[in-house]
From TrEMBL:
CDD domains hit by this protein: biotinyl_domain
Family annotation (Pfam families): Biotin_lipoyl
Organism encoding this protein: Marinilactibacillus psychrotolerans
Domain Lipoyl-binding: 44-122
Biased composition (Polar residues): 40-50
Keyword list, A-Z: Biotin
Descriptive protein name: Biotin/lipoyl-containing protein
UniProt feature, compositional bias: Basic and acidic residues: 29-39
Signal peptide: none
PANTHER family: OXALOACETATE DECARBOXYLASE ALPHA CHAIN
Coiled-coil parts of chain: none
Length: 122
């Protein structure tokens, strides 16, 4: 068993990781959660997405914003499409890198952007 300390959003958690051999029985045993672990999972899943630490989402290339799918104040999940950037007749979906809340919108439909230009702050 190895012990680690992990910090997520400023909170430190103590985590123990058990090495599991290749046998099926050991793998099944390692998948069983205690009631305390299940309670922690349910509590974590029911909480809203935390405010992020200020991530800037920038344009990967020059182009035109052809669709904006979120607004300032909206809560987004990692991988959720924020906007669509058309560049060289190709549509590129710009997605949220992590869960959070949109704190600032610098774009709207039809906006011309340059590579590296700020689109959204989470």
């Amino acid at each position: 068993m190895k012990n680690y300390k992990i910090t997520v959003d400023g909170k430190t958690y103590a985590v123990s990781v058990e090495e599991v051999n290749e046998s099926v029985g050991a793998a099944k045993d390692s998948l069983k959660n205690t009631s305390k672990e299940q309670e922690m999972l349910q509590t974590t899943q029911s909480q809203p997405a935390p405010a992020s630490s200020g991530i800037d989402i920038t344009a990967p290339m020059p182009g035109t914003i052809i669709d904006v799918r979120v607004q300032a104040g909206a809560t987004v999940k990692a991988g959720q499409v924020i906007c669509v950037l058309e560049a060289m007749k190709m549509e590129n979906e710009i997605v949220a890198p992590e869960d959070g809340t949109i704190s600032e919108m610098k774009i709207s439909k039809g906006t011309q952007v340059e590579a590296g230009e700020l689109l959204v702050k989470i």
